[in-house]
């Protein structure tokens, strides 16, 4: 038997416990919070970082979009605000933050099992702009949903990004007057122009809050999905296949290298030879070393993000550690870092999230075959755009980007010319009517600012402040 007084004590204890639990719960559920320290980075962060979730669903445990927000290190009140969406589809925008345009990067040093270190990137685009790095579609990075797979398609990605940004603004009204830009690269050349169109249409329809949309920038963007057809003239021009093979490919395949008739043996034979020539070429930067990326072969990525238990610490999906001289070594370090419990705590990542993979590209419904028409529509509405190409990328060669821009039929207002940095040619540029600027970044790979940070920063900051490149 329990005496009445101890029953009373028990009740009081239970009440206190419930209140404590509620407080703890609310702390976990806080939508966003400032991050002052990051494991692996020495001392307090010298820039403003906030991370958090924006919920798009009916309940608190569904459709949660994770983002990193970094304020401009210059004048956050007056500098533009950019929403950045890395490609894939399904690569975390942490890729843009840590490897390309954000204020921190991984220190490339030998991995010995302890937490990878972070250092500052002097050419961060956050020196001149506020940037939100968003993890979408669902299942990407630290974003999650109850049923991830049913929320992964081009149009869902577009609508979710649009909903995300309006909700984000409701929580950050102090940024509503800043100029707003959409930034994206690689595969996101497909959804990003449609996202811009959705934001624009939403403004026209009177959706709240109104967004001060100015334009967009895209790096080596997939646009027509015919990019592979441009790879052959490109690699011929770069000296990777012989004149004879190029002539034979043209003769036998008639310019169609993607959808080849299985009876066209001559074309198939030429394609096999072509593939042999390219088999040990780094397609993201033909001058960089070739490294086998076994993280892409691992199907474990497909089982992530289903509100599962935290996985045991492991070498993530990497079966072997890439060589330190490989670009993907940084991806390896990032994967170790993002799966460390102290890092997740610092980033306010919710406990139920499974293993972090840089990219989760499968289980995605590809609905849009070309974003060309969106560009046509957007320029008719007067938005500014910067389309840039790292000119050593085979994945989306600069020539294929030039081809669709040419097909827009815009008149040229500042014709093809070199653009300079410190007296050296950093690339070539051409400006069209309808406020579209095309620029190459000379010697850069698929993600241009990653390979040429000084040039990338100069290009971005000049374009942002309306200065000719
Ligand atoms: C790993 O290397 C770092 C420096 O890069 C060092 O601080 C740390 O003590 C090393 N850890 C182990 C387990 O050797
Ligand atoms: C472009 O705009 C027109 C007119 O508003 C619209 O009918 C069309 O669907 C748009 N194109 C795309 C690809 O959204
Ligand atoms: C560009 O011009 C060509 C030839 O006149 C025409 O067929 C095409 O429809 C035009 N493209 C656009 C986007 O207006």
Automatic annotation (TrEMBL):
Where does the chain cross the membrane?
Answer: none
Q: What is this protein called?
A: Serine carboxypeptidase-like
* Subcellular location(s) of the protein: Secreted
Signal peptide, first to last residue: 1-30
List this protein's GO terms for biological process.
proteolysis; secondary metabolic process
- Keyword annotations of the record: Carboxypeptidase, Disulfide bond, Glycoprotein, Hydrolase, Protease, Secreted, Signal
Instruction: List the GO terms this entry assigns under cellular component, sorted alphabetically.
Output: extracellular region
Pfam families attached to this UniProt entry: Peptidase_S10 (PF00450)
Which GO molecular-function terms appear in the entry? serine-type carboxypeptidase activity; sinapoyltransferase activity
Query: Which InterPro entries did the record assign?
Result: AB_hydrolase_fold, Peptidase_S10
| Record-stated family | Belongs to the peptidase S10 family.
Q: Give the organism, scientific name.
A: Arachis hypogaea
PANTHER family, from UniProt?
A: PEPTIDASE S10, SERINE CARBOXYPEPTIDASE, ALPHA_BETA HYDROLASE-RELATED (PTHR11802:SF239), SERINE PROTEASE FAMILY S10 SERINE CARBOXYPEPTIDASE (PTHR11802)
């Amino acid at each position: 038997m329990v005496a009445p007084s101890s029953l009373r004590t028990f009740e009081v204890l239970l009440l206190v416990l419930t209140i404590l639990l509620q407080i703890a719960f609310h702390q976990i559920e806080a939508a966003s919070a400032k991050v002052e320290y990051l494991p692996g980075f020495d001392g307090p962060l010298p820039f403003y970082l906030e991370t958090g979730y924006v919920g798009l669903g009916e309940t608190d445990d569904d459709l949660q979009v994770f983002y990193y927000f970094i304020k401009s290190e210059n004048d956050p009140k007056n500098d533009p605000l950019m929403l950045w969406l890395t490609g894939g589809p399904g690569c975390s925008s942490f890729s843009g933050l840590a490897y390309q345009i954000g204020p921190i990067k991984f220190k490339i040093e030998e991995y010995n099992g302890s937490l990878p270190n972070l250092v500052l990137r002097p050419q961060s685009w956050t020196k001149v702009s506020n940037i939100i790095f968003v993890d979408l579609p669902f299942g990407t990075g630290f974003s999650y949903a109850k049923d991830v797979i049913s929320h992964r398609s081009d149009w869902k990605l577009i609508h979710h990004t649009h909903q995300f940004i309006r909700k984000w603004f409701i929580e950050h009204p102090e940024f509503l007057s800043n100029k707003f830009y959409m930034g994206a690269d690689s595969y996101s050349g497909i959804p990003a122009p449609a996202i811009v169109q959705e934001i624009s249409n939403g403004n026209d329809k009177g959706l709240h809050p109104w967004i001060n949309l100015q334009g967009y920038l895209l790096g080596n963007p997939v646009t027509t999905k015919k990019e592979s057809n441009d790879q052959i003239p490109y690699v011929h021009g770069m000296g990777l296949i012989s004149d004879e093979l190029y002539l034979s490919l043209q003769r036998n395949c008639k310019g169609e290298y993607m959808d080849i008739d299985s009876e066209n043996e001559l074309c198939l034979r030429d394609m096999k030879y072509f593939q042999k020539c390219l088999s040990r070429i780094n397609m993201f930067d033909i001058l960089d070393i070739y490294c086998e990326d076994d993280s892409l072969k691992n199907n474990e990525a497909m089982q992530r993000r289903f509100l599962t238990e935290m996985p045991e610490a492991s070498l993530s999906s990497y079966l072997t550690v890439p060589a330190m001289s490989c670009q993907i070594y940084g991806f390896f370090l990032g994967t170790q870092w993002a799966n460390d419990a102290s890092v997740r705590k610092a980033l306010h990542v919710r406990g139920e999230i499974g293993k972090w993979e840089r990219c989760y590209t499968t289980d995605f419904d590809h609905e849009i075959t070309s974003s060309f028409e969106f560009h046509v529509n957007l320029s008719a509405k007067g938005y500014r755009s910067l389309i840039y190409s790292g000119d050593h990328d085979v994945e989306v060669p600069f020539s294929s980007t030039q081809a669709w821009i040419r097909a827009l039929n815009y008149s040229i207002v500042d014709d093809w010319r070199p653009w300079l940095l410190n007296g050296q040619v950093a690339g070539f540029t051409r400006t069209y009517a309808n406020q579209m600027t095309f620029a190459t970044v000379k010697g850069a790979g698929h993600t241009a600012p990653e390979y040429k940070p000084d040039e990338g920063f100069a290009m971005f900051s000049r374009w942002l402040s309306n200065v000719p490149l």
